[in-house]
Amino acid sequence: MHVQEWLDTVPAAAVYAVVGLVIGLESLGIPLPGEIILVSAALLSSQHGGINPVVLGACATAGAVIGDSIGYAIGRRGGRPLLAWLGAKFPRHFSEGHIATAERSFEKWGMWAVFFGRFVALLRIFAGPLAGVLHMPYWKFLTANILGGIVWAGGTTAVIYYVGVVAESWLKRFSWLGLVLAVLIGVTSMLIIKRKAKQAQEQGASREAEAETVAAAE
Q1: By three-state DSSP, how is residue 77 classified?
Q2: Collapsing DSSP states into helix, strand and coil, what is residue 123?
């Protein structure tokens, strides 16, 4: 079942909880489709009066900040052996190459890697644990974590919500145009098929006549 269809079958409170939990687990370092869940829920909120986009954005932000903070604590305690263990368990996401790329980003950008990492799928998984492993000062991490969570989660929710509202309004306004266009396409297709069939029939009749003429001549 499609993510949005599944979210549409559960109560609003469950939608908030699922969004916060999935984003929190992804931020903690577990490879999950947090962005897909958030976008689907935000789009659903634009079509479902029971889901408040403000509450949804707040839950997504809370999940992002809390998950990253837990990931930071785990990374700080686990250190390099933790990254090696994750690489063995999730080689697709925590390969040596991915870890090296993330480390270079942290070395170059520092706390801004945590902030901007929120917008990149790979760094979104790495940011918390890797910041802990590299012993980034917690106040720097927390500042970037909160700002990144608010901008990413709140911004994504707001943008997708308003896009959904505008799209739904546009579709309702021009639904008659779509109907007329569909009818015209259907009628045109029918006429073309009818014409092709008539031409094929005429060509077949002409061939039969020619064959009969040749047979008579022989």
Answers
A1: helix
A2: helix
Digit-coded pLDDT (tens) for 62-108: 999 999 999 899 888 877 777 777 667 666 666 677 777 777 777 77
Whether the full predicted model's pTM is greater than 0.70, yes or no, is no
Cα distances (angstroms) measured from residue 95 to each of 17, 50, 83, 89, 126: 31, 42, 9, 10, 11
| Half-sphere exposure at residue 1, Cβ-oriented, CA atoms within 13 angstroms | 7
Alpha-carbon dihedral angle through residues 114, 68, 24, 29, given to the nearest 10 degrees:
90
The two structure tokens encoding residue 188? 């045109």
Q: Which of 186, 73, 198 is nearest to 128 (CA)?
A: 73
Question: What's the sign of the alpha-carbon dihedral 115, 118, 123, 125?
Answer: positive
